[in-house]
Amino acid sequence: MVEEAIVTKVLAFLCNDGSEQSNLDNSDIVVGGGLGLGAAGNLQYLRNLATTIGGGVGCSRPLVQKGWMPADRQIGQSGHTIRPKLYIAAGISGAVQHRVGVEGADLIVAINLDQNAPIFDFAHIGVVACALEFLPALTEAFARRMPPHNSIKGMDRGRLDDQE
Ligand SMILES: Cc1cc2nc3c(=O)[nH]c(=O)nc-3n(C[C@H](O)[C@H](O)[C@H](O)COP(=O)(O)OP(=O)(O)OC[C@H]3O[C@@H](n4cnc5c(N)ncnc54)[C@H](O)[C@@H]3O)c2cc1C
User: Fold this and answer.
1) CATH at 105
2) Span 14-27, pLDDT tens digits
3) Is residue 16 a part of any domain in this protein?
4) Residue of the CA atom closest to atom 50 of ligand 1
């Protein structure tokens, strides 16, 4: 059999935030979190969204400094420079050192409680909201439209279907 004869099919997207080496440089979708997420446990909201939409997980520098995320997840001047099709930034202020790492993204969606946050100066879509409320709602909205194999473990598919 020759290689061209092998039929391939994408069965699922795997979120790679737990891997030794991040794949942020090559991801079409990146979900980034900042100090606004408030606690390491809340990073689960990022992972759930990334898993649902097939993206990688990144962060601002303070999350690495706090030990919430590994250093290879840092985006910005002293981290990765990314150029995804979609970058979703949650609880990130948009300091210049972060901005230089993300402004090559085709579409930047920023979620921040503070309508005057600098990130809204360069985001294409700004959402003034609490990321801890908005991220799960966004994940559920995507999950309704994605194939079942991308749904989050523990997410109540029946409950989602009921709302449709
Ligand atoms: C030499 C040098 C290199 C640096 N390199 C980098 C780098 O590579 N990458 C990098 O990211 N930074 C880098 N920094 C740090 C940078 O200057 C900023 O301090 C950092 O980016 C801020 O991170 P943050 O946005 O997560 O935190 P903050 O600036 O504290 O912003 C948190 C944001 O979350 C919002 N928020 C709070 N609660 C919520 C909520 N519930 N929902 C939604 N939003 C909320 C707040 O309004 C605020 O805008 C560097 C700094 C120096 C000096």
Assistant:
1) 3.40.50.1220
2) 554 555 456 898 89
3) no
4) 97
